[in-house]
Amino acid sequence: MPSVLPDGDPAPEDGALPERVLEGAADRRFGVYVHVPYCRVRCGYCDFNTYTASELGGTSRGDYAGQVQQELAFGAATMARVGLPERPVSTVFFGGGTPTLLPASDLTAMLGGITRHWELADGAEVTTEANPDSVDEAYLHALAEAGFTRVSFGMQSAVPHVLRTLDRTHAPERVRLVTKWARDAGLQVSVDLIYGTPGESLADWERSVEAALATEPDHISAYALIVETGTKLAAQIRRGQVPEPDEDLHADMYELADAAFGRAGFSWYEISNWSRSPETRSRHNLAYWTGEDWWAAGPGAHSHIGGVRWWNVKHPGPYAERIARGISPAHAREVLSPEAVRDERILLETRIADGLPADLLSEIERRAIPELIADGLIDGRAAIHGRVVPTLRGRLLADTVVHRLLG
């Protein structure tokens, strides 16, 4: 089962937001995230808030699109009530779970729920995640016709034994087929990879990197495997059935991927993400890293508006019950102090290629910059222009960069 939700302050049943969210709101972009918590099987490494059919406890996937639309209406009313300015939705992201386990008509209906309450910005980015074996050609064309602009495929690996260890159900050759269908439908394509799976060699990883590039995507994500407590994979490692991940091998894999992506014309813009051009960066994910506003609908979904963060109840059953009662599905929330907001900016913006404005740092914190340059952790030329941007070595040691800046 997924991990527990964090503690926080009580969330009001009417969803009321404090007036502090109004400060600077007109200058922040607004996005919408929709969490679809369904999976056909639970992958052994996964700690996300997802549920297979046997874990739903009597709730029905068929009711879900309607529940999300009710939460979206609740969200629009909540934002209007506090006096937030009307802002167009710049990005929409359907994540999970596997959103494409639902019929395309359900995703279309939920997107329609967004556009009923908020205007979509010109050129808005509208993404859904998908497993390679959860869509066909007709499904992808239906998404494009509904207004989706982008699909992110969970490829993870091109090596059968690695996919088996991860409990992934698709065949490697399926990825090239679905990415072609998506491009033919006019959708931008992203592929997600995971490196450092127990038993995965550097040669295995190189094979996956080259296979991902062969699909001619617009965007690639590559994430180091994290073994989460309570997962099947963690239990297998504890019993000695599979080896523990090797951090040195992780670093070698990251460097191999970064070099291969660079040769293919991709540039990194966040530690785990590369795009073919600035126009094909994931603008929705960048909104998370730069502190924009978003309303997140669905069980366990985390929202953020103006330094106020809240998270919904985890399970689809209690979520549906709260939606039916017309009250906020939030489990708890936190109101960030100005100091916490600033520290989060340092943590997140030192991960991106655009970097952190050095003037956000105190005079004492800025004293760490020359030493970070000398140690090859941040870019000296960017620092001269007032930005803290990690080097390749700095990306591998991102926590060290933040620790030394904050002291």
UniProtKB/TrEMBL annotation:
The keyword Heme applies. It is found in: Cytoplasm. SUPFAM superfamilies: Radical SAM enzymes. Its main location: cytoplasm. Pfam families: Radical_SAM. Residues 24-267 form the Radical SAM core domain. Keywords: 4Fe-4S, Chaperone, Cytoplasm, Heme, Iron, Iron-sulfur, Metal-binding, S-adenosyl-L-methionine. InterPro entries: Aldolase_TIM, Coproporphyrinogen-III_oxidase, Elp3/MiaA/NifB-like_rSAM, HemW-like, rSAM, rSAM_sf. PROSITE patterns: RADICAL_SAM. The keyword Acyltransferase does not apply. Probably acts as a heme chaperone, transferring heme to an unknown acceptor. Binds one molecule of heme per monomer, possibly covalently. Binds 1 [4Fe-4S] cluster. The cluster is coordinated with 3 cysteines and an exchangeable S-adenosyl-L-methionine. Belongs to the anaerobic coproporphyrinogen-III oxidase family. HemW subfamily. This is Heme chaperone HemW. The lineage of its organism: Bacteria, Bacillati, Actinomycetota, Actinomycetes, Micrococcales. The gene is hemW.
